[in-house]
Amino acid sequence: MRIESIVCPEYIEEKLQVKHGITRHEAEQVLHNFPRFRFVEKGHTVGENVYVAFGQTFEGRYLSVFFIYKPEARTAIIVSTRDMSRKERKAYERK
């Protein structure tokens, strides 16, 4: 998967900060820092599916970033981000 552009709507950015204590910049860092991708579900628009990226920020925080991928534009639209669960982190560190 090749991501050239990242979009984070303002209302999502607010939710990330208030609910999860995560900045938009941290979520973007994960997407730029060689994450591991996993398909989550088919999107409402054909070809625009939901994925999760497991990775670390430049400061070492482990995050799961959920996003819609638009392959024609190579764009990721962030829909949610949270700290990785213990199970996710164990799986991430094994690979």
Helix and strand arrangement:
Layout (H helix, E strand, L loop, with lengths): L4 E3 L2 H11 L3 H9 L3 E10 L2 E9 L5 E9 L4 E9 L2 H9 L1
Parallel strand pairs: 1-5
Antiparallel strand pairs: 2-3, 3-4, 4-5
Give your account of this protein's structure.
The protein has a single domain, classed as Nuclear Transport Factor 2, Chain: A. The chain is globular. Helix content is 31%, strand content 42%. It has helices at residues 10-20, 24-32, 86-94; strands spanning 5-7, 36-45, 48-56, 62-70, 75-83. A five-stranded mixed beta sheet has the order 1-5-4-3-2. The chain has 95 residues and is α+β, with helices and mostly antiparallel strands. It contains three helices and five strands.
Strand portion: 35-45%
SSE string, helices as H and strands as E: EHHEEEEH
Helix content: 25-40%
Rg, Å, rounded: 13 Å
Strand adjacency order, main sheet: 1-5-4-3-2
Within CATH, the superfamily carries the name Ribonuclease toxin, BrnT, of type II toxin-antitoxin system
Q: Could you tell me how far the N terminus lies from the C terminus, measured between alpha carbons in angstroms?
A: 18 Å
- Mean pLDDT figure: 95
**Number of separate strands:** 5
Structural category is alpha+beta
Major beta-sheet overview: 5 strands, mixed
CATH architectural category: Roll
Low-confidence stretches: none
